[in-house]
Amino acid sequence: MTASRGQAPQVTESEGLPGPGDWLVAPDLAPDAADPVLAPVYAAAARGALALPFCAACSTPLELEQYVCDVCGASAEIGTAGREWRDVPLAGTVHTATLVHRREPGLIVAPGPYPVIDVELASGHRLVLTTAAPSGQSLDIGAPVEIAFRTVGAVHLPAVRFPPGRAAGRMLLPDVTEGEINVMTVTDQAGPPAETAAGLRPGDVRALVQPDRVRGLVYTDPQVYELEMRRIFREGWVFVAHESEVPEPGDYVTKRVAGEPYVVARGKDGEVRVLANRCTHRGNRLCNADKGNTSSFRCPYHGWTFGNDGSLSGVPMRDGYAERFGEVRASLGLVPAPRQESYGGFVFASLEPAGSTLAEHLGNARHAIDRLVALSPTGSVQLSAGWMKHRMYCNWKMVMENNVDGYHALFTHQSVYDAVRPAKVSHVPAKTETMVRDMGDGHSEIDYATEYRRLDEEFVWYGRLAREKVPGYIAALEEARGVDGAHDALVIGPPHTLIFPNLFIAEMNVMTVEPLGVGETIAYTSPVLIPGQRELNRRTLRRSEGAMGPAGFLIADDGEIGARNQLGLAARQPEWVTLSRGLETDVTDATGRINKDKSAETPQRGWWKHWAAVLEGEAS
Amino acid sequence: MTATTLTDPSAAALVDPALVAFIYHEARLADEARYSEWEALWDDSATYWVPMSPDADPETQVSYVNDNRARIRSRVAQLNTGVRHSQTPPSVLRRTVSNFEVTDVTGDRVTVASNFVLVEYRFASTLWAGRYLHTIRRTESGPRLAAKTVHLVNAGGPIPTMAFLI
């Protein structure tokens, strides 16, 4: 997952293999590669080059449809020797730029506005291009740009690399409200960019993160937060819901993705869809309950009705659309999240059409989901007990990274060990074989498996429950996994794994976060239930209530410590937060970067490294 | 919320002042972080329940709090450690309880419904409100708290940290 955005497609990829699809237009709109005027441009683009015409007699750059040289008067007709195609440098400057708002479902696949840039090339040509990767932003006039390529259908086209290099001046900060930046404001801001007020530049985030420490303002800076909302929560994969929240056709739950309302609905065809919770007519929030079951969603404003598959099924007084009604109905279904995929029942989405697959995003972390579902005789888990919604007054990253902090438990949670019982295994690192692991791609975990296998005891992770208490579950698991397989699953138990950016599998609980602002977050937690295992599930519910949520013995204190951390970081000195614990003893193996000292800050180092790469647009 | 169905509208006038006094006492001990005294009000078998919706089924739905007697003891023990950070120092709390109605009488147990408004001051003031259902068992040594259910107005959440005794 380190593929750069906006990178030119690999030449090998273009040899016959269809690309992942253009971010802007549907493949149907691919130009004719054999177009008599432009064929040499397309052919050059396919090999990663930009070819443009020159006058063979005097080397003057020619317009694409210019047939006589302005300078020497020589003929430069298409297909004649008077018109010479040469590869030119992939560099130029912005002559002018605009942001286009265009919505033509089926043709334009980009959900938001996109830039169109008139580039003055170093060769002397002018080309009007869009960008190689999607962007809701335009560019400054005069900004230097590089040329890259996009692929529509099987045809390769030149495009502006976005974001350009650091020298390009102001940019990067998200246009969260979409469309506020247009050519007028860009013109207004021409000239030397302000240092900080105008936003973050490429490299600025990188400078906040070092291998063993991060700047405190990663938690407090509003510009960093805005960029996170765009790069991580809009453009990247985020966990949205679990399929078991909508078990039956017609079931739905409402969620927010990057602050936007979405409904996750299971259609009558059984498919689970992530759909924008907004009437396509005038924008009313369509579905206003947390959850329910319905065959259709009816907008209370003008009565438009949508099927639970998102299709527009009814428009009152349709005569008002006259002959255009068919077009209206076909084009105004609920808008699906541009990308949606599931793994192990966990539904993820991205609001950006182009990018990595979910499998690429999950990387090594998919093993955590495998480990969880291995505890279920049916191979699937159930998140049907509801979500505790806990408002915390700290930055969202603090909530997430704390979950894989093996250092804090003895202190933050001292009251639990003092009052109730000792920890499931020692939290003193020297007394246990528990390890921490940076799994790569921002994912990390505290892994008790080695320690539990050493103990070779079932349910250590579940209060040392005696298997006789849940005979039905044991029988079903042994039936499904065999006696040895069930024993191993019950010994190593569920994962304690953070999946970047917003999913934490906390043994038999799942936590996700919704950032509300730089210093405010909702933490959602739900117990992991096993289908059909009522006795086990009843115990899991009570364990979940004991540990998690606003009144939980554990998480209430994590919320408090988070709030105090946010308050402490208001002091600007020292500038850095230190994450060097265990740096010298990290080792790399096939599973990632591990440290056998549970209190090492290895997971945090992995988190921040990936975080910076995502914000810089170098990873997703 | 069948337990809150008022079978006799005149019941409001009939709430035993001793039960009301017990509920006031329970509220004041909780407000003043007198944890062990508060715990001593509970019966040997007890339920302290704060659900996430009024019609939640605790057998299948997760609750904010669903303590049996043993967990009430643990909760108080944790608060008494002095390092329950989310209540160190304790939130400053004051609540009013009103609108008493008897909703059920079964043997020696009486269920009294009431409304409450609670102001918590910690980093800032937070307003909590909702409906209490106190099930009180009359014994020879005085009333004992057998069950307390708290239906928060904002049970649907999100709610802030609620580590104090609601």
Could you outline the blueprint of secondary structure elements for this entry?
The complex is a heterodimer of chains A (620) and B (166).
Chain A: H1 11-14, H2 39-46, E1 50-55, E2 83-88, E3 91-100, E4 114-121, E5 126-129, E6 144-152, E7 155-160, H3 183-188, E8 209-210, E9 213-215, H4 222-234, E10 238-242, E11 251-257, E12 260-266, E13 272-276, E14 291-293, E15 296-298, E16 305-307, E17 312-314, H5 325-331, E18 339-343, E19 346-350, H6 358-362, H7 366-373, E20 388-392, H8 396-402, H9 409-412, H10 414-419, E21 435-440, E22 443-447, H11 449-455, H12 471-492, E23 496-499, E24 503-506, E25 509-517, E26 520-527, H13 534-547, H14 555-568, E27 576-578, E28 587-589, E29 592-595, H15 602-615
Antiparallel strand pairs in A: 1-2, 3-4, 3-6, 4-5, 6-7, 8-9, 9-27, 10-19, 11-12, 11-14, 12-13, 15-16, 16-17, 18-19, 20-26, 21-22, 21-29, 22-23, 23-24, 24-25, 25-26, 28-29
Chain B: H1 17-31, H2 35-39, E1 42-50, E2 65-67, H3 69-80, E3 92-106, E4 109-121, E5 125-139, E6 142-152, E7 159-160
Parallel strand pairs in B: 1-6
Antiparallel strand pairs in B: 1-2, 3-4, 4-5, 5-6
> Could you say which overall geometry of chain B the principal axes of the C-alpha atoms support?
globular
- Please list the strands of the largest sheet of chain A in the order they lie side by side: 20-26-25-24-23-22-21-29-28
Strand order of the largest sheet of chain B: 2-1-6-5-4-3
* Number of self-contained structural domains of chain A: 3
Overall mean pLDDT of chain B stands at 93
At the fold tier of CATH, the topology name of the largest domain in chain A is Naphthalene 1,2-dioxygenase Alpha Subunit, Chain A, domain 1
Structural class of chain A: alpha+beta
